[in-house]
């Protein structure tokens, strides 16, 4: 769609973000800034709806199909296995409330996770009499072998579903999804993955990793506007899901009555099977247009190349900060790395205070749950880490 702009996208080049007010924007793990092509795509839909009203509907339905394919290609799936939803949370909720649970089913969840991937399981447990089994996500960073043994043990004792984030939002640890998926298959458990801290920066493959369900939103590493997300459901799992959240668009031939005769208004149309069953009502076309453009840019650069580019950025910053007494959470094993570089500050200032001081010096980063977190993406030049180091030195010298 935006080929001219795509050809302008280049690793380490911020030209498509002329309005960005920070000298260093290393906060994509929170919310991405919007590039010019993304803004242009959103503005096109705004103008089109201002002009045409309902007339934009057919083109926007077609766009949804293209975005569905984009999502699918990011995870090695097909468009048929993708349902469009509002955000990651909506995706977790959809699966939590559509599975045919039996009272006493056990769900393995992780302390340290972003609450999106805990709260819906807690509520499903309360409503349906499920049991939550807890592990510490941090154990997989500190001693992966021992943690996987414990994981195996839990599965051997009977776990219906494992709910894990691909990348831990605090430490940036990439969880051992392939091993987890393999273990789930052996023990007859199902694997649910929250992928919002991974997609767009970490290559994922649902088939190779044995992922049964995956949910993701738009506004972090996919660099789109907020409010578009998707759910992936593995083809072999679709038949078991119950249409507990179905609404008007969940039916087959859902749009027929909009233009059809009186008898086409029916309530007995079958509910679509699979992920599309979760598409319930009207949709965020503006967000979808922006996201189509931002994923287009990411695909033109290639997720693997973006990952390497971001690792080089981290390689420039991590040792310099360690030399100044920061403690890094980044895994030494590259298989456990992501787009996140998180550190513990060397002094008695909290991470939030550090993030505030850096913000005042033109560097945007985050401080979730006590970690100082840097999340650069494809537009960040590797050279800007020198600027971060200078700012860190000025904060250290200023003292407390
Ligand atoms: C791991 C993780 N899951 C989910 C979310 C957010 O979910 P949603 O897309 O529902 O806002 C975040 C961050 O905001 C996150 O870091």
UniProtKB/TrEMBL annotation:
<keyword id="KW-0808">Transferase</keyword>
<feature type="domain" description="Aminotransferase class V">
    <location>
        <begin position="63"/>
        <end position="364"/>
    </location>
</feature>
<keyword id="KW-0032">Aminotransferase</keyword>
<comment type="similarity">
    <text>Belongs to the class-V pyridoxal-phosphate-dependent aminotransferase family.</text>
</comment>
<dbReference type="InterPro" id="IPR020578">
    <property type="entry name" value="Aminotrans_V_PyrdxlP_BS"/>
</dbReference>
<protein>
    <submittedName>
        <fullName>Aminotransferase class V-fold PLP-dependent enzyme</fullName>
    </submittedName>
</protein>
<dbReference type="Pfam" id="PF00266">
    <property type="entry name" value="Aminotran_5"/>
</dbReference>
<dbReference type="InterPro" id="IPR015424">
    <property type="entry name" value="PyrdxlP-dep_Trfase"/>
</dbReference>
<keyword id="KW-0663">Pyridoxal phosphate</keyword>
<dbReference type="InterPro" id="IPR015422">
    <property type="entry name" value="PyrdxlP-dep_Trfase_small"/>
</dbReference>
<dbReference type="InterPro" id="IPR000192">
    <property type="entry name" value="Aminotrans_V_dom"/>
</dbReference>
<dbReference type="GO" id="GO:0008483">
    <property type="term" value="F:transaminase activity"/>
</dbReference>
<dbReference type="InterPro" id="IPR015421">
    <property type="entry name" value="PyrdxlP-dep_Trfase_major"/>
</dbReference>
């Amino acid at each position: 769609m935006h080929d001219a702009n795509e050809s302008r996208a280049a690793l380490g080049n911020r030209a498509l973000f002329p309005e960005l007010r920070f000298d260093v924007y290393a906060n994509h793990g929170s919310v991405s800034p919007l590039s010019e092509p993304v803004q242009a795509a959103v503005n096109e839909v705004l103008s089109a709806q201002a002009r045409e009203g309902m007339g934009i509907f057919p083109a926007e339905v077609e766009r949804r199909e293209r975005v569905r394919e984009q999502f699918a290609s990011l995870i090695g799936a097909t468009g048929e296995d993708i349902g469009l939803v509002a955000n990651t949370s909506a995706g977790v909720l959809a699966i939590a409330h559509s599975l045919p649970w039996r009272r006493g089913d056990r769900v393995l969840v992780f302390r340290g996770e972003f609450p999106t991937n805990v709260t819906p399981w807690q509520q499903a447990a309360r409503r349906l009499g499920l049991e939550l089994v807890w592990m510490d996500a941090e154990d997989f960073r500190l001693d992966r072998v021992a943690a996987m043994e414990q994981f195996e043990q839990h599965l051997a004792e009977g776990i219906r579903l494992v709910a894990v984030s691909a990348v831990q939002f605090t430490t940036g640890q990439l969880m051992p999804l392939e091993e987890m998926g393999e273990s789930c298959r052996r023990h007859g458990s199902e694997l649910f993955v929250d992928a919002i801290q991974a997609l767009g920066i970490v290559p994922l493959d649902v088939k190779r990793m044995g992922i049964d369900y995956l949910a993701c939103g738009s506004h972090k590493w996919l660099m789109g506007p907020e409010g578009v997300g998707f759910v992936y459901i593995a083809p072999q799992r679709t038949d078991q899901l119950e249409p507990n959240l179905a609404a008007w668009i969940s039916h087959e031939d859902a749009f027929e009555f909009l233009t059809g005769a009186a008898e086409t208004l029916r309530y007995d149309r079958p509910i679509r099977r699979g992920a599309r069953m979760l598409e319930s009502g009207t949709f965020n076309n503006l967000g979808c247009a922006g996201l189509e453009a931002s994923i287009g840019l990411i695909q033109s650069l290639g997720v693997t190349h973006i990952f390497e580019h971001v690792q080089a950025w981290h390689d420039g910053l991590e040792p310099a900060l360690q030399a100044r007494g920061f403690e890094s959470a980044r895994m030494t094993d590259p298989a456990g790395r992501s787009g996140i570089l998180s550190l513990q500050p060397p002094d008695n200032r909290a991470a939030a205070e550090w993030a505030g001081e850096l913000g005042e010096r033109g560097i945007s980063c985050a401080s979730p749950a006590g970690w100082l977190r840097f999340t650069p993406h494809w537009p960040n030049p590797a050279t800007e880490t020198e600027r971060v180091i200078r700012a860190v030195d000025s904060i250290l010298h200023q003292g407390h």
